[in-house]
Queue: 3 jobs
Job 1
Amino acid sequence: MASLQTIIDGVRADPGLKSSIPKTKIDKGVDAARRMNDVLLTVLEQINALDDGIVSVGEMREVSEITYRTPEYFRAFILGHGNDAGRTTGFHHVQNDGGTLLFQGRNFIDTVADAIYHFGFQIRNGRYFNEDGNDNERVDDVAGWLNYFLFGKNTIFGTDGADELSSGKYSKAFRAAASEWWYAGDGRDKIWADKGNDRIFGGAGADQSGGGDGRDRMYGEAGNDTLWSDDGRDSIYGGAGDEEMGGGAGGDMLDGGEGNDTIYGWTGNDRIYGGDGNDDAHGDNGHDRMFGGAGADSFSGGSGEDFIQGGSGRDELGGGDQSDTVDGGEGADRIYLWEEGSARDVLVFRLGDSGLTPDEMDYVEGFVSGRDKINLSSLGPMTYRADDYRGGGQASCYFAEETLLIDANGDGQTDMKITFRYTADLKAVDFIFG
């Protein structure tokens, strides 16, 4: 059951408040908060706003209207809210009295709790206005803060415009709130998360999102978005549009989704999925796993022992430094294995991955006979021949004029060709057969 006890606990725990005013005043402030909590929870239950685990900005507008228009609710709300004109009453017993706890970089009692306890006043230009007729905090911010105290889900709402949303410091009492949920909404938004395990939903528009430290999950959604994480094992989903995304430090998962995406794994053992579209992906440091999907992709593993799979389409794949496994998949792919040192790369081919004409064939550069391997195990038992097929129902392959020719079923006919540019010869030891 939803509760607002965490606000009460925060008021009682605030060290600045305890050192500035007597306990009797704190008790009066707590009693006022409880009175307003009862009204707020009653109205939220009345409109079924607690059923889905998140209170929206629209629902907070509805709460304001119902509370203001219902005499019973509004009287109880005003008694709890109180005033500081003349005799101090209600929640004003603890406001501006030395509270030091911070919530999202704001003073917890004087700003955050005070703003939540404006829920019964009317709204003007997206803000509550108070008993003096002055503007208070944005309804969007209040709805977001309230979700933490109700459900433990600290939420930051954007608008339909171009928002710049950022986080702030949290006192130790609210350290769990540093893991935030961001809903940017429509518009070209800028979202800057900080420490914590955040969830970022960019919504429509060409957004820029920064995940900060922690294990973040970032969703670009609609639009051509830019998404960058920092330290931590993050998950980044591009969605529709042409995204640019980077994983930062840590073993990240990056999925470009639809569109022509540019993806950087950076440091760590990353998993990169290009998805649909013509994607450009770089594994960079670490032992990365990269999957191209549909489209003509360009993948580079960088340093580390990488696994690269092109998927369907005419892909360009480069293993980079160290010993990599490269699987071009369907389509006429270009595979580059050039590297310094003694890395041992493995090329994986299946029947149909490469065609018979120059326009359909896979093209390989940088293969070193005696060091690198060609994995044809998916074709079953096979032998390597010096200059022709074995035939007689026995699958075999041979190499001539920079081309590997493959008879997959032993009928003596060529089923697949692969070009190995700048490779003078191949040997039986270069192959992995089934």
Job 2
Amino acid sequence: MDERYNSPVILVTGATGFLGSHVAEALLARGEAVRLLARRPEAAAWLVGRGAQCVAGDLSSAAALAAAVRGCRAVVHCAALAADWGPWQAFREANDHGVARLLEACRDQALARFVHISTADVYGYPDCDGLDEATPWRDRGFPYNSTKIAGERHAQAAQRAGLPVTVIRPGNIYGPRSISFGSELVAAIKSGAPLIRGGRVNAGLVYVDNVVALILMALDQPAAVGATFHSVDDDGHTWREYFTALCRGLDLPLPQRSLPRSLAYALATLMEWGARARRQQRRPLLTRTAVELLGTRQGFSMARARRQLGFVPAVGFEEGLARTVAWLRTQSAPGSSTVTPVPPTA
């Protein structure tokens, strides 16, 4: 083994975000030397207070990336623009070009592992159950879906060139500090947003600690090198079940309205067209990505992770929801889309 593999440092990108903060926290908890890349170092102060190093910068800066990866033994790349609306160029910069720059910075480092966090959205929302990792990408022309495919393409090319890459494709991640499937979803419920197809579709949910556990296994196990793994709680829970649990826990009325997927998609298409025509930055009431996420079955098999890594999720649906609701209740304004993730107490 190259002697540089003896470096203890693990770089986590996106550590001021939802998943990345949980990954960094878990690595610190098990005694790892953790380095963060943060555009706003002050947002990472709570992790620095626990022992993490921090490099100021982002994926657009070759100098910051070089400083961040220097001497690392592993990289966990969580940073991404994960949203259903926004300027195409912002998605390309974060999810496509940013990945390419980070991989280029890693090219001359003797990494033991590069864990690339992709997404199950690369499949293009096929409305199926039992999909495995051999399912081909489907570019729907949506900014997030399209640019995450591009980013994964870069990661796979780096693997073929000799970098020890593991790709993880999470489903819809929820848990404490979640914005998309936490505070923003509650805000949508409070605003009267309808369910799609009555919410009776497999939501492809995964509790954040279960994603983190799989990432740690990918860092530790040689069998993970060169492989792609799903990360979902493949228990078939639906959006209706998730919405119901959130509403009960937060004393909110369950949405009563429902739209057929076809109608919701048509409305979203019109709303997106209108927003672009007006050069509107604010998210439309409906987007095509949101309709597909909430209105298609998202059944992804975990058989490969179980077979190759021995993965077993530690946190079930009921416990995950209880922890999520408890966190949402700590927020000053549950349901606000501007809720700031709050680091846990010790």
Job 3
Amino acid sequence: MLIIDTCSWLKIRYLEESGVLRIKDLIYESDLWTTHELAKEYEYYLKDYLDLKRFSIQSLKFQKLEKFIDKELDPADLSIIEFGRKNDKALIISDDGAELVILNLFHLKAFQLSEFILFLVNQNILKKTEAINSIKHLRKWRNIKEKKKKKLLREINLIS
């Protein structure tokens, strides 16, 4: 069960449109999920990019999490967190710092896009050169810090 936040999809789109990395079709082959709140964001920001027919949609109630709205989280973010809490097989890709903090507090399986790229290399799904180029571009666009870029590049180079 893979769920990807809007910010990460925008980065995936940017990498693709820049000719750096094309993983949308690969992602479409996975067990891709969304929530109603997240689908609304997709419709607004990514209507011309994503095919929502490829997503399974889960309805959720997240009243217990509404106290986190003051912590820079919108309903789509809260629905991702609740999705992860209710589905122990969920893998969450998010580049929203505030959301990642809460996901980690709940010990949910969450990655930033750059870490997901490393995961794909570890699984022999993505070539090292594609990953290295993607990580460098994410840094160039200031999506990850220099320290994180160096760490990820080291880890990629250690993969045999």
